[in-house]
Structures are given as C-alpha cells and as structure tokens.
C-alpha cells in the first residue's frame, strides 16, 4: 500500500491496470483485483475521466416517441 500511495502521488492518472503493470515492473507479483481492492481501501481513483459513451451529440435531434399514448392490445397494430 505504501508503494501504491507513493506512485499515485507521482502519477495520479494511473488506474488499477497501470498501477499493476508498474508494480510488476518493480518485481512484485500482484493481481489487478488486489490492486483495485487496495486502491479502493485507500480511496485512490484515477484523475482522468472515463469514456463518455452515453452522452448524445448536441446536433442530433430528439424524436418524440409516438406510441406512448397508444394501448397496444393486439399484435400487428403498429
């Protein structure tokens, strides 16, 4: 945990994957899940934002859902 904390102060953008690779280069046989758990215990989180996959593009139009008020009781109504 001391090594993880020291390296996090130098490179706060390291997540668990990069931290695991760094520890392995230093000669420690660690698993990524263990590094995730230790970083979670210490409250460390990478400073870079994650992927923004659910944000729509502002130029794309928002179409209304036309079937919201219809009661579809049988098949082949739409």
Describe, in plain words, how this protein is organized in 3D.
The chain has 78 residues and is an all-alpha fold. It has a domain at 2-42. The protein contains three helices and no strands. Helix 2 packs across helix 3. The protein is elongated, with a radius of gyration of 23 Å. The model has no long low-confidence stretch (mean pLDDT 92). This is IS3 family transposase. Residues 1-50 form the HTH-like domain. InterPro entries: HTH-like_dom (IPR025948).
Low-pLDDT sequence parts: none
Task: Name the helicity range.
Answer: 25-40%
Shape: elongated
Described by strand count, sense and barrel closure, the largest sheet is:
none
Rg, alpha carbons: 23 Å
Q: How large is the share of residues in beta strands?
A: under 5%
User: Mean of residue pLDDT?
Assistant: 92
Question: What distance separates the N and C termini?
Answer: 60 Å
Topology order in helix (H) and strand (E) letters: HHH
Structural class category: mainly alpha
Number of contiguous helices: 3
> What is the number of strand segments?
0
Structure summarized in a few sentences:
Pfam families: HTH_21. The protein is an all-alpha fold and 78 residues long. It has helices spanning 2-10, 16-25, 32-42.
Question: Any key phrases for this structure?
Answer:
78 residues, 38% helix, 0% strand, single chain
